[in-house]
């Protein structure tokens, strides 16, 4: 009997040891093995509603985005040429500047006051516009009525602002005057540093014209831009997901037109195309009783677009901008409108962003392309409920957990270095099978000077409860025998205003004290106090638990 008890006791100990061993995820970072630049392609943001730019919370968020890192932050917004409708002026997926009108004789009247107020807000903060030439002013539209959409009330989205110009020469002159005015206001050196594009997603109903009419509109816009500023940069076409054959064909046909087609505006062969723009979106859905993300299709978009660009030898090393790069396609759809968007307030949005951005670096390396930017189409929404479940970075001026991932990326400098994880999935694994079986527990690391940064995530496509991961992180090739470690964390307890708000009882009328607490909870927080740790033979190790959908950033300084 005693022997049996000893046997059972030892068996239990052995099982517990095996479970502990199985749960431990070993991640090795090789600081002496650089793999590429820690290119800040993530420092691009965008939104539909340009008038939010100058609102109090909009200005606050832009300031915070600028403060993420020393790198340049670009901002893209729709509706910079849209005419004022009959409403208060802004709504979900709507905004206006009233930049162009015509008098009774059809003569143009330009009014840059609202456009200037938006661009001023960027420039004052040292940000750069990715200037979107669109949408069609009412007095230039071939179908001006109805003009303002009522999508937020369930009405038709694709109204008069989506139509071609009634006069392409007036369209060219509008662009010329806009660029000329910008140079007069901001100086040529500043304007030359901007990026310009024509329209948005012309392969779907954002454009109610033909492919040929889009090419014509682009040619005339590019001609107007270059007449005012030959040194300015223009690109496109900012089409939708290239994994879809129609969008892929539209993208490649547009490139073909720009390289070898007849220019509608000049009659010459070829049109300025100085960067390639396309969009990449995931596709969440409800599976049973929970949300299931689909990172694989977003990465598939990027893979296909990189292949498309590489199929044109003339485009080698051309800058590429993913004009919208998101887990799905409707920032202005709240969780109430579509429950599948309920992932946005919590940490799943954070871990998805960390894991997907790391795979974008991977695809960039594999396809040897010049990725300049990936625009996160997420900003803030005015006059909405607290944590309404929009795809935004802040609610009522309070940062949501996902913004702290961008703070983490903003801290990472220098060159990316090699990371090995026994549970890592490759970009192609995720494209093929998603993250449906094992959790994706992996890391991205960089090093510059006497500092290194390691971002670690515990991601899964299924938004359900799960166990924490036991991480064993080994950092190799340290140059000193002692390092200062700072460990930042995003999870349900740290850097999470949403959980703080829920603990308050989900108030919609937030007191001044509650607001202060939420504001503090929305900042990036340390998991533990900074500490010095020994490095033996150039190696140091950290062990910690990382909750499902959690993200850690470890900063080492020596």
From TrEMBL:
<keyword id="KW-0732">Signal</keyword>
<feature type="signal peptide">
    <location>
        <begin position="1"/>
        <end position="20"/>
    </location>
</feature>
<dbReference type="InterPro" id="IPR051923">
    <property type="entry name" value="Glycosyl_Hydrolase_39"/>
</dbReference>
<dbReference type="GO" id="GO:0005975">
    <property type="term" value="P:carbohydrate metabolic process"/>
</dbReference>
<dbReference type="InterPro" id="IPR017853">
    <property type="entry name" value="GH"/>
</dbReference>
<dbReference type="GO" id="GO:0004553">
    <property type="term" value="F:hydrolase activity, hydrolyzing O-glycosyl compounds"/>
</dbReference>
<dbReference type="Pfam" id="PF01229">
    <property type="entry name" value="Glyco_hydro_39"/>
</dbReference>
<feature type="active site" description="Proton donor">
    <location>
        <position position="201"/>
    </location>
</feature>
<dbReference type="InterPro" id="IPR000514">
    <property type="entry name" value="Glyco_hydro_39"/>
</dbReference>
<comment type="similarity">
    <text>Belongs to the glycosyl hydrolase 39 family.</text>
</comment>
<feature type="domain" description="Glycosyl hydrolases family 39 N-terminal catalytic">
    <location>
        <begin position="26"/>
        <end position="522"/>
    </location>
</feature>
<keyword id="KW-0378">Hydrolase</keyword>
<dbReference type="InterPro" id="IPR049166">
    <property type="entry name" value="GH39_cat"/>
</dbReference>
<protein>
    <submittedName>
        <fullName>Beta-xylosidase</fullName>
    </submittedName>
</protein>
<keyword id="KW-0326">Glycosidase</keyword>
